[in-house]
Amino acid sequence: MRPVITPDSGRTPDESQAASGRLGGLRTTRTFKPRRRGLSPSRQAVLDEHGPQWLLALTGDTLVFTRPTVLEIGIGGGEALLAMAAADPDTDVIGVDVHTPGIAAVVQAIVAERRGNMHLVDGDVLEFAGRLPAGGLAGISIFFPDPWPKQSQRWRRLVTAEHVDRLVPTLAPGGYVHLATDIADYAEQMVAVCGAHPELHGGPIERPATRPVTRYERKGLDAGRTIVDLWYIRGARGGRS
Description:
Order of helices and strands: EHHEEHEHEHEHEHEHE
CATH superfamily: Vaccinia Virus protein VP39
Distance between the termini: 31 Å
Number of helices: 8
């Protein structure tokens, strides 16, 4: 069964414009550079045939979620996204990435494995944010985002105060943000940014056994780097919602 994710046709034009302005309509720093590497003929054929069924438009009306929905930002090869969808068929998952080959790989897996609780977005989450309803998400996962290691590139990092401010309102009270990185100074930045947000509380946790291992995690481990997981809940400071 496909997840039930529909446009919010009940909004007035003024309400839709206001929601877009809060989350997706403001000018912002792009965090990613689109990577449109060519696809193999077989994968291109799968994307052409099945992509329209599973891809959500980057911009448009606000979506309505009728089941618990989790957003993964930066799906890479899709390992974590597919594992999350398989582990909890009663939760819908949306994966967003600018890496078209990764999107195509997941569409191919959805078709092969008959996954029904998934949608994908080929583009920048900062643009897609305008379609997310306020308080609509059960959780947001950000696993091993591009570290942009050079000092001159740090402004491109995803986890900044500006971007977290825009994404937190899309979480339901009690909704979570799960982050993982193998870059020590990025982990410090995540702790500082999320710890300073008035609606988030949490911090470093032991690696959850339920978090799938991704290729980026394996690369980090092979390089001898330490993996850091962080977990934050949206709620009043000092107590869980």
